[in-house]
Structure formats: structure tokens, C-alpha cells
Prior knowledge:
4-stranded antiparallel β-sheet; minor pseudopilin epsh fold; 35% helix; 1 helix; single chain; alpha+beta
Amino acid sequence: MSRTSRGFTLIEMLIVVVLIVIGTMIAIPRIRPVMTRQQVDRAAQLVASDMRSAFTSAARGRIPIRVTFTPSSTNYTVASRVTGATVVKRQFSGTDLNVASIAATTATLDIFPNGIATGADTITVSGTGGYSRQVSVSRIGFVRVIPLP
Length: 149
């Protein structure tokens, strides 16, 4: 009596599952650095966007704005110098943009309503594995993410 059945046997399904697991185990170490780079790039874009909005808030509100970077942490605050009201408070640790550190050349940057800051600043966003991006802020409000060499 011959049996003609369609479908897969249990052994064939196990072989396919084992092959998928092996392929995934090989791919994970290669994907992790790419994900870290994307997180650092997105964090640098957010920092640049927040710096642009600080210049805009100072001009529109006609009040000086202070950007304060907390040393050895991954957060910063954009607040009014007059009232102390927080415009933006950004914390990168514990979020999907888990960067290792954010460091600025000056801990405090004041932006005046005429569009001039107290000085130029360079903010470095670093991720795990040594990858980092820099955000350059000029004294006249030109903000850009410095491209990779």
C-alpha cells in the first residue's frame, strides 16, 4: 500500500528551523554596529535640531536662552535665562537612542534674542564601540552635523 501525502515531515521542519537559527546567530554581531551608528546619527540630528530651536526660541520670544550640558552624562537642558522655564530637556540614556556620552566644549551656551551666542560650541555624541558624531554650533546660529571623513 503506497501512501502519497503532501506536506513536510517533522525532521524537515527541524532542519529549516536550525538553519534559520544559525543564520540569525551569524548575522547579529554584524548588525549591532550598524544599529549603534544609526542611534548615534539620530541622536546627533536631535541635538542639532534642539540647538536650532534654541536660536529660534530666543528670537521669537525675545528672551535669552541658556543651553546647559551636564558633564559626564547624556542629557542637556534648553531653558529661558529670565524665567528659568524649560524649553527642551533631552535625556538619551534609557531611551531607544542609548548613546554612551554627550560632551560639549562649553558646559553653558547662552543665546541672545539678536541671534548671537556667547561663543561657538562643538557637541560630541558618542556611542558604544567608539563611534561618534559632532554637532557644530557657530556663534551666529549656524548649526550642522559634521559629516564623517
